Amino acid sequence: MRALSVVLVSALALGACSSGGSSETAADSKSCAPSEGNVTLTYTTWIPGIENVVKVWNDKNPNIQVKVQTGPNGNGGTYANFFNQLKAGNAPDLGHIEYDALPSFRVQDGLTNLADCAEVTAAKDQFVDWTWGQVTFGEENSVYGIPQDAGPMALFYRKDLFEKNNIPVPTTWDEYAAAAEKVKAAGGYITNFSQSDINQFAGFAWQAGGRWFANDGSKWTVNLQDEATTKVAGYWQGLIDKKLVSSVPPWTTEWDNAYNTGQAWTWTSAVWGANSIMSGAPATKGRWAVAPMPQWTSGATVAGNWGGSSTAVFKGSKHPYEAAKFALWLNTSEEALTLLNKEAQLYPATKAGAKLPALSEGVEFYGGQKIYDVFATASGQVAPDFVWGPTMTSTYATASDGFKAAVSGNGTLLDALKTTQAKTVENMKSQSIPVAE
Amino acid sequence: MKRVTPMVIMGAATFYFLVPIWWLFVAASKTRSEFTSTTPLWFADFALIDNLKELFAYRDGVFLRWMLNSVVYTGGAALLGTILAAMCGYALAKYRFRGREAIFDIVLGGVLVPATALALPLFLIFSQFEATNTFWSVFLPSLVNPFGVYLARIYATASVPDELLEASRLDGSGEIRTFFTISSRLMFPALVTIFLFHFVAVWNNFLLPLIMLGEERLFPVTLGLYTWNTQVNQLPELRMLVLTGALVSIVPLVIAFLLLQRFWRNGLGSGAIK
Predict the structure, then answer these.
(1) What domains sit in chain A, N to C, each tagged with a CATH number?
(2) pLDDT (tens digit, 9 = 90+) per residue, B53-110?
(3) The complex's ipTM?
(4) Given CB atoms, is B30 within the 8 Å cutoff of chain A?
(5) Which of A71, A357, B57, B152 has its CA 20 to 30 A from that of A107?
(6) Does A197 touch chain B (CB under 8 A)?
(7) CATH top-level class of B54-273
(8) Helix, coil or strand: residue A135
(9) What is the phi/psi pair of residue A21, to 5°?
């Protein structure tokens, strides 16, 4: 840790020297000054087809050329690489970081605060509120990335099967549990409870009002067992106990097959889940529809979020102004958002992005329904104050172990949350992250 | 009766090892929708050719580039590394000098250090020279093969008689010439073994390129396929490309083993007797 901060400090000092004109005392507040001459930025991301998007920028901006580097997705190795590169002082200027990983980079002092960039703060209103909350951590004068995409959640369901069996589409979680009984009677499962998608469960908790982490500026608090999260865990544990949900591991062939053969009838998932069903269950074409996420209180309109990422500027970047400018173009301009959606099916984090032509059309796979309208509405209903912790990778791993045990009958989801709470606090302490007991 | 038991055990082992490859071959021959909906171990519509075409055409044929990279990284490193290991092992076996045993012990200690543990320190060192994300950042560290040195020494001791070296010295042959024209031929079966071991080790060393490389055009095929595989949730059509790519990527290994297995067996056997 100490070695890391020494390296970072020296990298900062270098950055300050090379930017020439800025005064030493206020180096931080002037950190967003434009560089002179031509600038080449490096940008590491795993978005498929990103070169085609960056090419559009490079053709238009001969003075600010962006070089793309790539690799596996964040938890697949690229985050580890980022940390190594920060340690070695050769991190790229820009990097792709998912919302739930941003705090861990911030805790390690790996990000440039873009709050000094006037163009960045001015762009605030272009973004859906909660996505902006994800990159500012709800603090004044802090912007640690530009929101890129979002994963508002809704209910995917087999319209044909619900109609055929005369089951009303659930609008509340109570109705969902009632529907689960009827689906079971009809020979299927209402859904698969995922033992390893802890961020999906986080989306459920987020919707219910759970707030897992908080940071008052000096200390973190961890609340994996708050009232709302406990309610959500108890609810799903009830479905597991009554064997109303299946426990096939997610993202496997078996799991795809359960959807493809009509054994699983619904999936509460993010907007990008639309493509997962399309590719995993091609035989069910035309039989799906999308409804808003079931609610905890009848008539409420609250949605959860699962996934989404930002474009961050790393500490040590010599050109934060140019980097921020590129990141803004990438994540707000219609041409870039259209291309990102086309190449990688990213769902924009901007308000205007939800109205892209590609997102306004009916989707054949979903019986011609304009499914993205449902998600656009959901995106506006996600609470803006959910904060991720600085050690999500290990938190996810612990929770996933507990959830796996719970679905196979050893312990409950509540036990898993208890263990995860304790381990997360312990882990933060071991990394010298200040945490309240 | 005596033959039946071993045959059954060998048959079971063969079956056990071949099933995954069979699965891969069958899976790579299916279309994406059939992959999930049909039996995993038998064919549906045979779409292997289409899958291959798609694989080779995807992103301007980046997959072929990865295959080429892998062949250069592994083939090049194994060839050069084998020569280095042979020379080193030969010197340790045939020349007497101070610290010979110490050097040998250190090299032997190197066998115990997994390549994985070295990847991060190597990254930090290459960072100092601003040489990460280059061809050399993967190629140079891959040349090192302590196990090869060990094998070469054992084999040189056993197969290159001192008398022969003396005779060639008397005939006026220099040390280097002796090594390349006489000793290396005597050591040939061991060299093939070293080459194969080295080839497989470099091919499988996944962490080093993962840490070093960010430029897609420099990826070896293992890293490239892994990268695609992590994007499957985002871009589902990649799944078939990953499967087909995995099938194609084992072809060079299979070829290398089929061509060299004769030597490989000899080398293993003679290495064992000493």
Answers:
(1) 2-150+307-359 (3.40.190.10), 151-305+362-430 (3.40.190.10)
(2) 989 988 888 999 999 999 999 999 999 999 999 999 999 999 999 999 999 999 999 9
(3) 0.84
(4) no
(5) A71
(6) no
(7) mainly alpha
(8) helix
(9) -65, -25
